[in-house]
């Protein structure tokens, strides 16, 4: 192969300089302008040495040539010989092309710069900001909750990085979330898996990072790739939380993210909540209230003056906060034995409206010991549960249900899903039967004898798109509710849905509990972004072992119809080894948004609980 010629090398060099952008092109135009002016000046001095009239030397001729190149209109006022006019015409014509190209280049370069700014490609310079990486419907829940959590913090910032248009992201978030208050939203366009794009978010000074699980196929692979990119970057690594869809990918994600990342198992969390809601009516509402930043939130406070007391004595230490457990050096324990001493190194876990409400009570609460009922908690009975539809987390739901129910319990699975009932070996307490059924068909549902069951679980069928699956779930709920009214049957109904916007429609069905799985995960991620130590608390709340949340008959704690303070209810639960955190008014069980549930009432609050009302407690089965 022969070597490159001088012409080829020169052309290659010229092409490289031309490809460097607007600045390089403007530089070449400047060179062309200088050459044009020098050539025209030289020709004028040679062909018309005495022109133009009044020119005293080469310097003035150079200036006149420059003006003709920059302002072609000056040619109209020129007078002189044919040679002079021809040379000036050449200068004006060349200047016209050069100026036109310069204006076009500057306009194009400015437009590219504006487009770059519009796409959000500049590096942010915020401090203590929360970074959200990726995009899914959960982003609206997370941003909404973070706005509420940071409402009292001036200058709070939420920064979002996703492979979407910057303006589209900002518009969608504002449409879904509404007023952001004092929180500023900063969106940047980029791929969270690329280190160069991650550098735009100024992660070194970030307060926390939230990694979203995207919609579409194999979302966990995308999350794990983002975690790898975060782990490999230089500089400080802020605490991060990420949602993993499939439990089997948790180990790989933990290895990719390292110690600074806390992982949320989406399927596992949603499955636990569905099971607990199916067993305890109103459980989903209680958990949603604890997870969001609207009402009662979970806080951790140093033991302080409570050190030296027992856990039972600490239950009435706060007027407007409910103590639920301890965070000890050995780990979190909820509803420990009442004689457990509170040590100096412990943190007290409380439910409070906000951090300012956690103040010691100024006086001992008023307790009416005569209103307390000494009734035993009824023993667990074998029950019948009906599961309608099937999806990828159904097996996990059944195994968690098996850990809750008494031996001899029966689970009927009714669906036309081809995978229904597979891989259920090893169940200890449940007897499982599978029946083919179109769960949207009224006659098929009636043939199941739904009235023979105590609990009904309606899952989202994964054979359909989320929107269509929610539509079918609504159909099933309407059929069940109408059957209850027509046949006079009584059983609890818990349903799983995808879209939060369908909750309003589902309220018409008066289902006991509606679990929006994506919303639950979004709320949990927002909570952990604010305080990652809460992960152990929520893990205990959703675990079938140890103490969980139970709504239990109020008549087992205080005399029905008698007015008492909530401190009396707390004392009644304490005597049973339980922690009371609220109550449910049966008359409001179908009234959104709280469905009669009151969490963390003031200890001095006066209440009248009837036969159908419930006390919400932390207790063991």
Automatic annotation (TrEMBL):
Q: What Pfam families does the database record attribute to this sequence? A: Castor_Poll_mid
Question: What main location does UniProt list?
Answer: membrane
Cite the InterPro entries for this sequence: CASTOR/POLLUX/SYM8-like, CASTOR/POLLUX/SYM8_dom, NAD(P)-bd_dom_sf
Its protein name is Potassium transporter TrkA
Q: How does it sit in the membrane?
A: Multi-pass membrane protein
Q: What is the lineage of its organism?
A: Bacteria, Bacillati, Actinomycetota, Actinomycetes, Streptosporangiales
Query: So which residues are the signal peptide here?
Result: none
- Annotated source species: Nonomuraea indica
| Keywords, ordered alphabetically | Ion channel, Ion transport, Membrane, Transmembrane, Transmembrane helix, Transport
Segments forming domain CASTOR/POLLUX/SYM8 ion channel conserved? 268-367
């Amino acid at each position: 192969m022969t070597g490159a010629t001088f012409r080829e090398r020169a052309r290659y060099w010229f092409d490289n300089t031309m490809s460097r952008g607007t600045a390089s092109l403007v530089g070449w135009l400047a060179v062309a302008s200088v050459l044009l002016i020098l050539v025209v000046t030289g020709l004028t001095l040679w062909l018309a040495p005495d022109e133009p009239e009044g020119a005293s030397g080469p310097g003035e001729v150079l200036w006149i040539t420059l003006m003709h190149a920059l302002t072609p209109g000056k040619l109209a006022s020129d007078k002189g010989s044919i040679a002079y006019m021809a040379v000036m015409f050449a200068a004006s014509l060349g200047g016209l092309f050069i100026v036109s190209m310069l204006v076009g280049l500057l306009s194009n370069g400015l437009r590219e710069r504006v487009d770059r700014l519009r796409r959000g490609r500049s590096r942010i310079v915020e401090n203590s900001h929360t970074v959200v990486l990726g995009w899914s419907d959960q982003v609206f829940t997370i941003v909404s909750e973070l706005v509420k959590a940071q409402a009292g913090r001036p200058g709070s910032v939420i920064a979002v990085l996703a492979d979407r248009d910057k303006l589209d992201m900002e518009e969608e978030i504002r449409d879904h979330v509404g007023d952001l208050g004092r929180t500023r939203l900063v969106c940047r366009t980029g791929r969270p898996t690329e280190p160069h794009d991650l550098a735009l978010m100024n992660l070194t000074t970030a307060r926390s990072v939230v990694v979203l699980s995207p919609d579409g196929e194999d979302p966990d692979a995308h999350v794990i790739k983002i975690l790898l990119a975060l782990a490999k970057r230089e500089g400080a690594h802020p605490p991060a939380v990420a949602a993993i869809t499939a439990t089997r990918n948790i180990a790989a994600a933990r290895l990719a993210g390292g110690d600074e990342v806390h992982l949320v198992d989406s399927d596992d969390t949603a499955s636990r909540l569905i099971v607990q809601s199916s067993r305890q009516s109103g459980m989903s509402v209680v958990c949603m209230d604890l997870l969001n930043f609207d009402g009662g939130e979970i806080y951790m406070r140093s033991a302080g003056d409570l050190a030296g007391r027992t856990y039972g004595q600490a239950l009435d230490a706060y007027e407007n906060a409910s103590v639920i457990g301890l965070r000890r050096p050995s780990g979190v324990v909820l509803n420990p034995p009442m004689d457990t001493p509170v040590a100096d190194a412990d943190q007290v876990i409380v439910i409070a409206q906000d951090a300012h409400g956690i103040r010691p009570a100024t006086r001992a609460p008023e307790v009416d010991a005569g209103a307390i009922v000494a009734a035993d908690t009824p023993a667990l009975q074998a029950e019948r549960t009906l599961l309608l539809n099937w999806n990828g987390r159904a097996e996990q739901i059944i195994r968690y249900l098996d850990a809750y129910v008494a031996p001899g319990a029966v689970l009927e699975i009714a669906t036309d899903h081809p995978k229904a009932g597979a891989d259920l070996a090893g169940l200890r307490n449940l007897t499982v039967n599978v029946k083919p059924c179109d769960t949207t068909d009224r006659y098929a549902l009636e043939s199941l004898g739904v009235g023979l069951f105590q609990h009904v679980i309606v899952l989202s069928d994964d054979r359909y798109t989320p929107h269509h699956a929610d539509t079918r779930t609504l159909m099933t709920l309407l059929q069940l509710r109408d059957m209850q009214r027509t046949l006079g049957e009584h059983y609890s109904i818990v349903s799983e849905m995808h879209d939060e916007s369908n909750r309003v429609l589902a309220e018409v069905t008066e289902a006991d509990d509606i679990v929006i799985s994506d919303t639950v995960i979004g709320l949990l991620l927002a909570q952990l972004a604010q305080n990652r130590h809460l992960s152990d608390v929520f893990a205990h709340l959703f675990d079938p072992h140890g103490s969980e949340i139970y709504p239990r008959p109020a008549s087992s704690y205080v005399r029905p119809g008698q007015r008492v303070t909530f401190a009396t209810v707390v004392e009644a639960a304490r005597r049973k080894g339980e922690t009371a955190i609220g109550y449910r008014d049966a008359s409001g069980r179908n009234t959104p948004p709280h469905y009669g549930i009151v969490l963390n009432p003031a200890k001095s609050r006066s209440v009248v609980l009837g036969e159908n009302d419930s006390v919400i407690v932390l207790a063991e089965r």
